[in-house]
Amino acid sequence: MRVIDSGIRLAIDFDLKLEIYWMKNDDLFCGFEDLFDLNFINQFVSVRVYETDKNHESHLQQIKKIIFRKKHFYFNDEILVNKNINSIYHKAYIDFVKRFNNVDNYQSLIKSKWSNILSDCDIIGKTYSRFYGPINSNYHYFRLQHLISKKSFLILNKFPNNVLGVHIRRSDNKIATLTSTRNKFIDSINWYLKSNPGAKIFLASDDISEKIYFEKYYAEYIIIYESELVRNKQMGIKDALLELFCLSHCSFIIGSYFSSFTEVAICYNKEKDYLILE
Length: 278
Known about the structure:
By secondary structure, this protein is an alpha/beta fold. The chain is 44% helix and 17% strand. It contains twelve helices and nine strands.
């Protein structure tokens, strides 16, 4: 979502057409339009989605032949991480947000950098990282597919006024698992419940053992959606998005370190107070 949100905002600001090459694989076995309302996005910017399969690398080479007829600017995660992108995003964030606490200045620097690049070339990006737009984007353009939205609101309608959102990332994310431990979650949840009598807990996790444990530990407080926890099935991805959406409507979020799911949930719909367990 971070990458596509960046692309949408870049396309809107510079009056560009956006093409999304959506790779269906064992980590994300679901089509874009099975999750999001593409017609809604097209009200703001021209977007075409091309779904690719596991032969993504060879497909990407074909895309390059088409797009790179003109001078091009190509970036990927390695370039972003190594900051060989003329400080387009990461250094700009450090310099302008942390030092001056001025998001407007940061945004103008990003825009001017991209303006120079886009003046005479097309761009193609292969990345998991945000490369344009506000760090605290509310992901306004990501309206859920109708049935996912309907199921989400059946859960949200049961929420009381104060719900603590908890996201426990496990599975293949070793950094989150080692850093945001179960004991840290218990201590933080207890702190919140003590400060907010009557609050409930909505728990989202990709680990069934954590769901079982916390459902027993906080039996009188917990709200859990019985989700499919397999990413290579369409329902597993849809359920993960449902949990993300419900999490984003909580009053406060306690989340996992080094997790994009936690990061998006904090800002989706509106920015919320949060605690990331480092």
